Amino acid sequence: MGHILAIDQGTTSTRAIVFDASLKPLGFSQMGISQSYPHSGWVEEDPFEILETTIQTCRDSLVHADIEATEIAAIGLTNQRETTIVWEKETGKPVAPAIVWQDRRTAETCARLKADGTEEMVSRRTGLLLDPYFSATKLAWILDTVPGARRRAENGELLFGTVDTWLIWHLSDGNAHVTDATNAARTMLMDIHQGVWDPELCALFDVPMAMLPEIKNCADHIATTEVLGMQTPILGVAGDQQAATIGQACFKPGMLKSTYGTGCFALLNTGANAVPSQNRLLTTIAYQLDGQRTYALEGSIFIAGAVVQWLRDAMGLIADAEQSQTLAEQADLEQELTIVPAFTGLGAPYWDADCRGAVFGLTRNSGPAEFARAALESVGFQTRDLLEAMRRDGAAGETVLRVDGGMTASDWTMQFLSDILQAPVDRPVVPETTALGAAWLAGMQAGICPDQDGFAEAWSRDRRFKPEIGKEDADHRYSVWQEAVKRTLTNRSE
């Protein structure tokens, strides 16, 4: 029993990876998750598809790793955050589709609450901004629109959870209705300074507190499951971006990581100090161990890898993601084509839920290569937006950025990222840092993995990208981006 199973339930796929006690990956399984878009700005998923892919990938990963279930000492779980699910306590059936974190249907509710002057109180207690991104207004929407849901919730018949809670409840046969501090911190219902659900916030969003799960440490006895055919403990849980922060061993204040998946999320460790942002970043819990909370500043970008999917699926310009780099390398450098991928609004530091994507600088010579380059560059530009905001908050100085996620396989994209940031970019040897973080939490709790210092010492770099253009050139390119964003925003001042 010297192995760990890590579940990585993401926005567009579910993965399960088996690690040994030295945290070397041995085998994995992955299955896609379908999304539906009933209206503009709406994004939904089937909760049972999330559950079924989790169960299947867990079992398949053991086959691929060629080990028996008896060899799994613990399970760690990491998940897409903020995605909101409400289900029947008696049957486990969801009362509505899962409302995905990208969903913007509650923009008007957030605008009304802002107009009522509540954002300052919400931000002070939660570290978050009033935005449809977070779970509270999604949850309220379900209660208000599904017939009978609010009455049933008040009667204790319905439960709420983000994806971690939904999975753990079902994997434990309904015996554990729990979450961890990192996922709870993204609901907009938790006081991140006290580490508890806040009654005043629940009253503001009209959420019955009986629906809410118990909040646990990231490494804890979370639950027991028979998903592998025998009783196996779930000992680690963290939201995907916090798990990646852990997997990148960003344990010291000032360390910064950025994950490039469907979206992009940069987290800067601020230690025991919950730094309030003056530049519309988020203050969040990076991890909670033994009751001690470590905080981070976070910048959230809604569209990163999804812009490459757009090139492939909607535009038909590429057959697979790898082609985007090949095309980008062929682009005409004289053109300044800029894509602002605000397909579901813009996240940090703009927080404009209503703006939509735009393309600037089109010429007769703009073709697939120029679109591919502009798409990849948009990820670098958005990352610089976040780093500039962190610097204005006084939390980031001369920073080395540790990167992970699917897009980091592109050397071209990582080199552009280093160029536009004018900072070193480190890519780790183990790219699956989100699953790695969940595995370490579970393995450390089980007593088979190294402690925090040992894990940090074992972190290793695959490659460091350094700027190859000068600051003047980088600043010019960034200014073109800033002008494009200014023209895209709906909340800009005239």
Fold and architecture overview:
This protein has 494 residues and is α+β, with helices and mostly antiparallel strands. The mean pLDDT is 92. The strands form seven sheets. A seven-stranded mixed beta sheet has the order 17-18-16-15-21-22-23. The protein has a six-stranded mixed beta sheet with strand order 3-2-1-5-14-13, sandwiched between helices. Helix 10 packs antiparallel against helix 12 and helix 11 (322-329) packs across helix 12 (368-392). The protein contains 16 helices and 23 strands. A hairpin with a 3-residue loop joins strand 1 (3-9) and strand 2. The chain is globular, with a radius of gyration of 22 Å. The protein has helices at 47-65, 107-115, 119-126, 135-145, 149-154, 163-171, 181-184, 199-204, 240-247, 305-313, 322-329, 368-392, 411-421, 433-446, 452-458, 471-488; strands at residues 3-9, 13-20, 25-32, 44-45, 72-79, 85-88, 98-99, 158-161, 178-180, 190-191, 196-197, 214-216, 219-225, 232-239, 256-260, 264-271, 282-289, 292-301, 338-340, 358-360, 401-404, 425-428, 461-465.
Low-confidence stretches: none
N/C terminus separation: 63 Å
Number of helices: 16
- Identify the overall geometry: globular
Arrangement of strands in the largest sheet: 17-18-16-15-21-22-23
- The radius of gyration is 22 Å
**What is the mean predicted local confidence, pLDDT?**
92
Question: Using DSSP, what is the number of strands?
Answer: 23
Helix coverage percent: 25-40%
How would a crystallographer describe the biggest sheet? 7 strands, mixed
Strand coverage percent: 15-25%
The helix-and-strand class reads alpha+beta
